[in-house]
Amino acid sequence: MVIVESAGFSDVGKKRSSNEDCIFIDDEEGLYLVADGMGGHQAGEVASALVVRSIRDFLESSQSVEGDALPRGHLSGKAHRLLEGIEWSNRVVYQTASEHDHYRGMGSTVAAVYFSEDTLIAANVGDSPIYLVRNGVISLLSVPHTLQADLPPEAQAAFMGNILTRAVGPKNEVEPDICELSCFKGDQLVICSDGLSTKVTPQEISAIAAAQPPADACRTLVQLANDRGGEDNISAVVVRVTGVRRPHGSVIGKWLNWIKRRITSIGIRSN
Are 38 and 49 within 8 A, CB to CB? Predict the structure, then answer.
């Protein structure tokens, strides 16, 4: 069981008239989402809201039916459900756009963190990043789906970072990227929209998340992005792991118990 404290904050920024970002936080279910919509006539707002709502509803309904699903391939049951939830959200957005001309072509990014018993699952479509801060080191868990990221360095140009190669909704199928790794006390996850990540460096994100409680860190990060221009909507979700209660039979749990026993035995012999 993973115990966390979390917060999220979303701001319209200084240049936009509406906020096309949508965030979701649920400590009880261990689910955290950031979606950044795109499309004219407020279609971006509709797309991001649909993504968040459909993933949330899918996971709630599938969990009640399946309980703790068995692992499939290299993914745990929860990781597999998250993938299915994102794929379901793609069908919802695509169908809605197909039925309404003023929503045609709309889409959204999505960055999701989902906690299992003692692991964290990170999945994404688009360029909204998911950062893990562990022992003072920040790592990018998500995979940027941009033209710039898809090309070799010699062919890249700055403007290509704004061109998405994958999004939720524009096509009838979507391929999320996903990873699952063991979770430890002290881990921090920062999920944000590109309105933040293009203005604040990973090192700054790491330092702020480490120095402040999640709610304060979110507001500081958003304010910093605004201070540096705020041309886009800005969203941040910060999750801090305050404890991990591992299942008795887990590999990590057995390893940690062995270390504790070893330390104890060494201490007894040294007296």
Answer: no
Domain annotation for the chain: domains and CATH numbers: 2-270 (3.60.40.10)
Closest CA to 115 of 23, 214, 183: 183
Q: What is the pLDDT of residues 15-64, one digit of tens each?
A: 999 999 999 999 999 999 999 999 877 899 999 999 999 999 999 997 65
pTM over 0.85: yes
Query: 174: closest CA among 46, 54, 10?
Result: 54
- Residue reference for tokens 């993504």: 51
Q: What is the dihedral of CA 189, 144, 36, 104, to 10 degrees?
A: -150
